[in-house]
Amino acid sequence: MISGFTFLDRNSAYNKDSVPRRKIAAISPLTSPPAAPKAKPRGGAQTGRAALVLREMLLEGHFQPGERIREVPLAAELGVSRIPLRLVLERLAHEGLLDVRPTRGFVVQRFSTADIYESIELRGLLEGMAARLAAERMDDPAQAAKLQALNKELLLWVQRRKLTLEYLEQYIDLNAKFHAEILRMSECRMLHRAMEHICSLPFASPSAFVRRQYIAPESWELFRIAIDQHGDIVNAIVNREAARAETLAREHARVARRNLESALENGEIGKFVPGMKLVKL
Fold this sequence. Notes:
The protein is mostly helical. Helices cover about 55% and strands about 5% of the residues. It folds into two domains: about 45-110, Arc Repressor Mutant, subunit A (Orthogonal Bundle), CATH 1.10.10.10; about 115-280, GntR ligand-binding domain-like (Four Helix Bundle (Hemerythrin (Met), subunit A), Up-down Bundle). The chain has helices at about 45-60, 70-80, 80-95, 115-135, 145-160, 165-185, 190-200, 210-215, 220-240, 240-265; strands at about 100, 105-110, 110, 280. The protein is globular and about 55 Å long.
C-alpha cells in the first residue's frame, strides 16, 4: 500500500472491492483577484490635459495680458507637479500665447490688431503655397475627389434658407476639413508645421470669424463669397493651374480681414472671436 493505492499482481484477478476509494476534496469556487488600483495618468497624458485646460483659461481671459504666471498656485489648480507644468508653459510659449521674460518667467502675451492682420496675411501666404503645391504635385484629377466632395457639401450648406447654430457648427467642421485637405495635398511637411504654428493663435485660423458671419446680417454675404472662392480654388488645383490656385487661396484669406474690419467698426469683435481678451484694441 503506497500513498493510498493498492498494486495488484498482474496474474491475479482484478477485484474492485480491494482497491480503496480515494476521497475527493470539494473544490472551492474561484475567487476574483483583487481589483487593480486605478492607474494614474502618465506624464504625457497629464501634460496634454493640463495644456488644454490652461489654453482655454488664457483664451477666456482668466489671465490679463502682461500678467506673470505664478507657477506654484497654478500647478495646484491644474493638479500637476512643477515639471509637467513647466512643459505646458513652454508649449504655450511656443504657440505664442505666452512670452518668456528673463527675470519674470512666463508672462501672458499681449496682442494688437496689427498682430491679427499680420497673422491672417501670413496664413494666406501659407495657404497659397499649399494650393500651388497641391496643383503641381497632383498626378491624377481623382486625387482631388475628397476636396471636391467637401466643397459640394459646403455649397449645399450655404444654400439652406434657414441657418441654425447646429448648421453653423457643421460649416465650421467642413471648412476646417476643406483647408486641411489642401494642406494634405501639398505633401509638404514643413508647411504643415508652419501652418499648425500660425493657426495655434485662435484669431488666425480659417474659421476664426465664422461665428460673427452667422450673427451679423451684413456679413452673411461673406459666406457666399467664401464658397465661390472655394470652388475656384478647387478648379484651379484640378486643372493644375498652380499660380492661379496660389493667388486665389491668398485672396480667400482676405475674407477674414473683411470680417475683422467690420467687427472692429461695430465694436463687437470680443463677442465672436476666442482669444480676443488678449488683444489690445
